[in-house]
Amino acid sequence: MLRRWSVVILVLMLAAAVAFAGCAPEEVEPVDPDPDEDVEPDKYGGTLRVMIEDEPPHLDGTTSLARLTTTVTEPMHVTLLTYSEELELEGYLATDWEAVDDTQIYFEIEENVLFHNGRELVAEDVKKSVERVQDPEIGSPFAEHLSAIEDVEVIDDYSFYLHLEEAYGPLWEYLTQFPIYPVEEGDFETEPVGAGPFKFVEWITDHKIVMERHEDFFKEDIPYLDELEFLYVPEYSSQVGMLEAGDADVHLWIEPVDVPRFQADDDFDTIGRDLLGFYYLAFNLEREPWDNQELRQAIQLGIDKQRVMDTVLDGYGTVADVSLAEETPWFSDELTFDRDEEKAREIIEDLDIDFDDTLLVPDTPIEGPMGEVMQQELADLGIDVELRRMEVSTFVDQVLTEGDFGIMICGYTGAGDPDILNYRRFHSEGAANITNYDNPEVDQLLEGARRTYDIDERRDMYIDYYQHMLEDVPVIHVFRTARFMAVNNRVQDIIYKPNLRYEFRHAWLTE
């Protein structure tokens, strides 16, 4: 089936005609400009200071999918495709792309795109970047997602084919994340080189990462900023203090309790987004008593998700039963159910289980408080568990990496395609299947949704998949969060996307 997207560039030509009459020009009194007339501001110049709560492990955007690494490295790179604020697929480096058939995808890319080292980016760089990611010695998490690409056939400097083993429906999503590198360069972890709007300058450990404007960026007239700095400020109270003192310009994630305060302060603007991010309660299906499906179903039936969300987020969110946002084409009203706390308590009482476990949660502004509320929700259903709030790094190592837990709370950031959240976590052989979930029918649905580009076919398979998830309950999705940035009111035009991506290439500063 053929699908085609094109980047259409509209060029508006303005023409002015001046008529002259008579033999000599008349004297005209100069007219003072109207003080009320809008004047285009000078957008160029200045340094935007963005705070981050931790330092990324490195600056190689192809070997880490960690949120901090992504946030810091994306301004330095270009990808073939990107998403708009409304999550519509757009070209970034690509000007045209077409699925010729299930296994061949044709691309054309921009001309005169320069890397930060001054060399032009050409199709051969796309080929070498794909091969670098697929190299097992690199250990890139993108390798799994680009494994469907068998070869990149370069036609000329500005066009190429991706040859696939079979159709791979979510490929477009991964091409919005995968950066193109000049592979002849050396250490991307400490001195990255890309073709993005900002160019790496220095990384002062435990202090800041500095970038400057890429003067030869291929998108006309941008970026506006002279410099972009990411400031390492680990404590939340210090972050708020620096923002209020004018020592920083952007706080990427303010806690819900602080949103009204910043909204009421004329010196700041708040930018809120309903994210494609979901918070959930998860079970290890190989640990008792959580291997009991009837118990998991009863917990799902009885939890008051609205209460949890209102308490944790002060109402800034949306209750969720599955990891799908309602505004996406994948959502269906079939994927909901009605709560029945009384019935849930009866089921749990009849099961007569002796509970002796600890609810593990990362100590973040959302998961930490969510753990406390969820502990009480479980107690109300007759399930008494201890609560342990863990340092994030410890939680990542023990729970998300080693899978050492019985019951836990976490969140994940979604994307435009359901494959991103689900295949890795809930396919029986998924790389991040820490719940040890194993359902052959689910495996078939997840695999089938990868083998077609047809949105309607994929949607039907994902609806069936989510119905299995609601029946089997390896996780209980609780809410989808709205997240707020607070920025100094001199900061203009930061783009904040529902998939937790930020764009600074259009940002500028008023006087």
Question: Keywords, please?
Answer:
single chain, 511 residues, D-Maltodextrin-Binding Protein, domain 2, Dipeptide-binding Protein, domain 3, 22 strands, disordered N terminus
Name of the CATH homologous superfamily of the largest domain: Dipeptide-binding Protein, Domain 3
CATH topology call of the largest domain: Dipeptide-binding Protein, domain 3
Give the terminus-to-terminus CA distance: 52 Å
The pLDDT mean sits at 89
CATH class of the largest domain: Alpha Beta
Low-confidence stretches: 1-33
Shape estimate: globular
Describe the structure.
By secondary structure, the protein is of the alpha+beta class. The chain folds into three domains: 60-175, Dipeptide-binding Protein, domain 1 (Alpha-Beta Complex); 198-273 and 483-509, D-Maltodextrin-Binding Protein, domain 2, CATH 3.40.190; 275-482, Roll (Dipeptide-binding Protein, domain 3). The chain is built from 14 helices and 22 strands. The strands form five sheets. Strands 2, 9, 10, 11, 12, 13, 14, 15, 16, 17 and 18 form an eleven-stranded mixed sheet that branches. A five-stranded antiparallel sheet has the order 1-5-6-8-7, with helices on one face. It has a two-stranded antiparallel ribbon with strand order 3-4. The longest helix is centred in the C-terminal third of the chain and has 18 residues, at 455-472. The chain is globular, with a radius of gyration of 26 Å. Residues 1-33 have low confidence and may be disordered.
